[in-house]
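Service request form, structural biology core

Requester: graduate student, group of Dr. S.
Request type: structure prediction, single chain
Budget code: on file
Notes: please return the result as structure tokens.

Sequence provided:
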Amino acid sequence: MAPQDRVLDPTDLEILRLLQADGRVSNAEIARGVGLAPSAVLERIRKLEARGTIKGYSAQLDPRPFGLGLVAFVFVRADEPVGAMDAGKRLAEYPEVQEVHHIAGEDCYLVKVRAEDPEALGVLLRERFGAVPGLRSTRTTIVLSTLKDSAEIPVPKPAPGPGGES
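Core staff response, request fulfilled:
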């Protein structure tokens, strides 16, 4: 991506802030918020989507009604060549796995998982993670309570324009 493709003007930033706050906000509401015609806002949103700045839209679900109240972070070590991520790709295929991060340090991956209870977590680790070729060991931390859980990106507020206007 060329540097000019990553430049977000103040209007783009405000559109992104509005969409991130409420993914169901109407195009007309965004247009009122940024002072453009709805067609101009739609064109900007489509460009942001095409560039990959907007990666998608989704509903945030409470995991408890689905029996997935337990959250754990699993540090995974794998025996694989430097730069290979085969084990991580396999781990990412499991529906209980919400995040897989290739990390620096003694471990290879940090994996966020959701399970019904400690027993279900144990089965996931023993039977499914244990079946991944090259996986050497895991260390698991179970979450007792969550104080913040957000995928929100801090979108900077546009700088004020000349005369203090934004």
